[in-house]
Specification:
The protein is of the alpha/beta class and about 700 residues long. It contains 25 helices and 22 strands. A seven-stranded parallel sheet has the order 12-13-11-14-15-10-16, sandwiched between helices. A six-stranded parallel sheet has the order 17-22-21-18-20-19, sandwiched between helices. The chain has a five-stranded mixed barrel with strand order 3-4-5-7-6. It is globular, with a radius of gyration of 29 Å. Bound molecules: adenosine-5'-diphosphate and magnesium ion. The site of magnesium ion (MG) has 3 residues, from helix 11.
Length: about 700
């Protein structure tokens, strides 16, 4: 399916010279598995060096290239200590070239005593000695190094070096073909952007705003195009008009009146369902806004209309919680609700699972709640016509929308999210969806008292938790988010260590839940907490979304500065759900940057998720990458926030115009646009074209 011209870009990285199993791992860690990925592994920044005759000409902290004569090798007595090579410049100044760890082996070979070498690196002072630690280059002839006074600095992982990755990028670029232009001609001309391949080459060579912008624009255009194609496809499909008679909803006895926002959203959904073209609607509402009830009413409309509805949750914990809540609420209506999660983990074992599968097939089950398992091929439905997707930012936008187009008749889709997305990103994420907003919290909610506390007061905090728990209420303890580089296992280790120490104080009152426990263990842990049997829940961020235990009114978040504001907000939303006053303690580590300080202060100041999202964006600054992998709030890898703000509206219009003129993407430019979709793996957009 993929156009042949793109094949060289999707060649596995092993095909490059020098990539063996040893190098593959660190590359994979950076998400680099194909030529295309290396092409797009753009430099974080560039170093500019100055060639100097002698050290008197160079300043400390400066990046230099200099010719030196090696005089002596000094291994450290202590094995973990540094390995120093002493060398002299042309007028007799002494410099140490310092290596740590395994790098010292190469020093022996690279810097023989008595020889002249060109060394490139950052000049530093250590005590009264000048030194260069781990030089970027050591070469016999200066020529080549002197040519490259400006060099890219790439994001690395353990086991990679700058020269190694630069070499691989060079190979990838050599294999990269020129591709036809997919951007509107006038846009390329006005902005004076280079062609695609040239832009890649330039972006790796030096700071080049035009090249960077062009590459970012490509990504934005691909995303807009794909979303529009899916939307257009969806409009063409025939769904099933669902009109309920209200007989089930009337029997639902909710313990509270609906808020105005809930009533309005339900009406909007009801209006969509009554249409034949399938609904594609996003329900946006801050944590605690009451999305579950809206989803339930929507599903009951479907059941009243004689079809089945499904609710898809991102985790097993959430699926079970929804199941418990919804089963209780619908009891008086007589609608049949079932839970379906990963293999063998359904309550009651495989017999119950079989029964559920049967019930879905013969239509005796009206509503199914579960994880992605509900969409496995082995699960068939008599007539599934309505799908609710909860906390939908956890799923890829593509897959989500694809669901809408699966099967002969497209189901109506309601996606729900509590992630307050900054306005800039709404268009990117949901540009083509209809949106209902729950902009009103249920009455009686109390503000959460949020405090920032230094980690040195840990003992006091533990005593505070003890008093809280002693008073009959429950608490969450969220463990630090460890840097992504350290791997997800580190988060677990931190949680386990904290659990062990809290267990000494709280005994069996404390329970641990993290992402690597089996689904059964996780569910059992959550249930102990939800039932009130356990008083303190120690967790990684698995509790982030949706969990609802109203008696839990204290939340402790360790190393809060490591979390994004949006994520802190989500976490904090786990408390303040009942009528009791709630408290959130943000424990901070030692030294904080100015930004980190402001972010935590902002958490103290406001509870408005949308404001937090906007301010977070401001604080992180336009130039900084969104860190998509951690935060999940941007669907982009290349485009920075600044670029999104600057370029997305144009890219969006560009995509719209192209689709209006050439909806089938069959003109030459349309063909080029298809390549773009494949290049950014938005080919689910292309697949939409086939059906229609
Ligand atoms: P979220 O939008 O985060 O999914 P939930 O649906 O879990 O929120 O609702 C949060 C809490 O608010 C639940 O305990 C729910 O029973 C309660 N709730 C929902 N709607 C109302 C309402 N209209 N009045 C009072 N409480 C409500
Ligand atoms: Mg929820």
């Amino acid at each position: 399916m993929r156009p042949d011209a793109l094949n060289p870009l999707f060649v596995e990285i092993d095909a490059l010279d020098g990539v063996g199993p040893k190098l593959k791992k660190p590359l994979e860690k950076l998400g680099l598995t194909r030529v295309r990925d290396l092409d797009y592994h753009l430099p974080d920044r560039f170093v500019t060096r100055r060639a100097v005759q002698n050290l008197d000409e160079a300043g400390e902290g400066e990046h230099i290239v200099i010719a030196l004569t090696v005089t002596e090798h000094r291994a450290s007595r202590n094995q973990r200590g540094p390995y120093r090579v002493l060398a002299q410049d042309s007028i007799g100044n002494v410099l140490a070239i310092t290596y740590f760890g395994r790098a010292s082996y190469s020093a022996k070979k690279l810097l023989p005593v008595g020889e002249l070498r060109w060394v490139a690196g950052k000049l530093e002072r250590y005590g009264d000695m000048l030194q260069i630690v781990h030089p970027d280059h050591v070469v016999e002839e200066g020529g080549d190094t002197l040519q490259r006074l400006c060099e890219p600095v790439y994001r690395l992982s353990e086991g990679l070096t700058q020269p190694k990755i630069a070499g691989l990028v060079r190979q990838s670029l050599e294999r990269t073909p020129e591709l036809p232009e997919w951007i509107e001609r006038s846009q390329v001309d006005t902005a004076a952007w280079p062609a695609w391949r040239d832009a890649l080459v330039l972006a790796h060579k030096a700071e080049h705003e035009g090249a960077r912008d062009r590459l970012a624009y490509d990504e934005l255009l691909a995303n807009s195009l794909a979303l529009m194609l899916v939307r257009a496809d969806n409009r063409k499909r025939r769904g099933q008009a669902l009109v309920g008679d209200g007989k089930l909803r009337d029997r639902l006895n909710l313990p509270f009146p609906l808020t105005g926002a809930q009533t309005r959203s339900i009406a909007e959904i009801e209006g969509d369902l009554a249409q034949q073209s399938p609904m594609l609607r996003l329900l946006q509402g801050d944590v605690g806004a009451g999305k579950t009830v809206v989803a339930l009413e929507a599903m009951l409309i479907a059941v009243e209309a004689g079809v089945q509805a499904a609710l898809l949750a991102p985790t097993e914990i959430l699926a079970r919680q929804h199941f418990d809540t919804i089963r209780n609420l619908v009891e008086p209506t007589g609608a049949q609700v079932a839970l379906l999660t990963g293999r063998g983990s359904t309550r009651g074992g495989s017999k119950a699972r079989e029964a559920t599968l049967m019930g879905l097939m013969d239509g005796s089950i009206d509503i199914v709640i579960g994880t992605h398992a509900i969409f496995q091929d082995s699960v068939s439905y008599r007539d599934l016509a309505m799908v609710v997707i909860d906390e939908q930012h956890r799923f890829g936008v593509g897959q989500r929308l694809m669901l809408a187009s699966k099967g002969k008749r497209a189901p109506h889709v309601l996606a729900m999210t509590a992630t307050p997305i900054p306005r800039t990103l709404t268009l990117a994420q949901y540009g083509e969806l209809d949106v209902s907003k729950l902009d009103e919290l249920p009455p009686g909610r109390q503000a959460i008292d949020t405090r920032v506390i230094g980690m040195e007061r840990l003992a006091e905090v533990v005593e505070g938790v003890a008093r809280h728990v002693g008073g009959g209420q429950q608490a969450y303890w969220v463990c630090p988010m460890v840097r992504e580089l350290d791997g997800p296992g580190e988060d677990i280790a931190a949680a386990e260590a904290r659990y062990a120490s809290l267990k000494e104080r709280f005994g069996k009152d404390v329970v641990l839940v993290h992402g690597q426990l089996s689904p059964e263990m996780k569910a059992a842990g959550m249930e102990r907490f939800a039932s009130g049997d356990a008083k303190l829940l120690v967790a990684t961020t698995v509790i982030e979304v949706g969990v609802d235990v109203p008696n839990a009114t204290l939340m402790v978040i360790e190393q809060a500065e490591r979390f994004g504001l949006a994520q802190l907000h989500q976490l904090r939303g786990r408390v303040g759900r009942g009528s009791e006053k709630s408290v959130c303690l943000l424990l901070r580590g030692g030294e904080l940057s100015e930004t980190a300080r402001s972010r935590l202060a902002l958490m103290r100041e406001t509870q408005d998720g949308f404001r937090l999202a906007e301010e977070d964006l401001q604080l992180r600054g336009g130039g900084e990458l969104l860190g998509t992998r951690q935060s999940g709030d941007s669907p982009f890898n290349i485009a920075t926030l600044e670029q999104i703000t600057k370029l997305l509206p144009k890219a969006h219009d560009d995509a719209r115009m192209l689709i209006e003129r050439d909806g089938g993407l069959s003109s030459p430019r349309g063909e080029a646009a298809r390549m773009l979709l494949y290049l950014f793996e938005r080919d689910w957009g292309v697949q939409m074209l086939r059906g229609g």
